[in-house]
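Structure first, sequence second, as always.
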């Protein structure tokens, strides 16, 4: 199967309907405010104006993601902690809008046995597949979790893989900015 390469997608990211949809996706997921302390409710109070300003920043290529707010959360019944990065509401909107554009392009690349972070696929579906395999006579289940993977993804290799399918430089630059946005721990 020949893979299609996409050249011009950036205008889809700042399309008004996509930004509105992205906001409601963010709202549905809830979440705490980022470094700017703006809540979802606060952003929604002036939604039309906020999205208009955001759309213009994206159009003019002046949009700059803010650093994520670092929060440590308990893991393994409080024995360990893992870092959680909390983007601003606006950054989550742009990320969701970007995902809305890119996800259909890359979704076709995934194997049917891949269950993590995919649309319409859940952990329950993975468990159902494990049960199906066990009932078919398989005896082993392998569960792999790469420690701190998202903190250690080689950005240059990630961008190289994206460029194989998406050549729109504005999309690549936006992704690059998110990857380089940094982390705020306390006031640093």
């Amino acid at each position: 199967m020949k893979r299609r390469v996409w050249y011009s997608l950036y205008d889809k990211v700042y399309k008004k309907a996509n930004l509105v949809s992205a906001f409601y996706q963010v709202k549905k997921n809830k979440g705490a405010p980022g470094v700017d302390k703006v809540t979802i409710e606060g952003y929604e109070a002036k939604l039309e104006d906020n999205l208009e300003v955001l759309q213009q920043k994206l159009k003019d290529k002046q949009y700059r993601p803010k650093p994520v707010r670092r929060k440590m959360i308990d893991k393994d019944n409080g024995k360990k902690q893992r870092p959680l990065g909390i983007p601003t509401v606006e950054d989550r909107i742009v990320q969701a809008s970007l995902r809305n554009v890119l996800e259909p392009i890359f979704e076709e690349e995934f194997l049917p046995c891949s269950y993590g972070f995919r649309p319409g696929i859940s952990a329950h579906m993975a468990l159902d597949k494990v049960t199906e395999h066990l009932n078919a006579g398989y005896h082993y289940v392998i569960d792999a979790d790469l420690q701190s993977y998202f903190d250690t993804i080689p950005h240059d290799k990630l961008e190289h893989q994206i460029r194989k399918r998406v050549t729109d430089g504005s999309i690549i630059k936006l992704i690059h900015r998110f990857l380089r946005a940094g982390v705020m721990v306390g006031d640093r």
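Margin note: The first strand starts at residue 68 and ends at 75.
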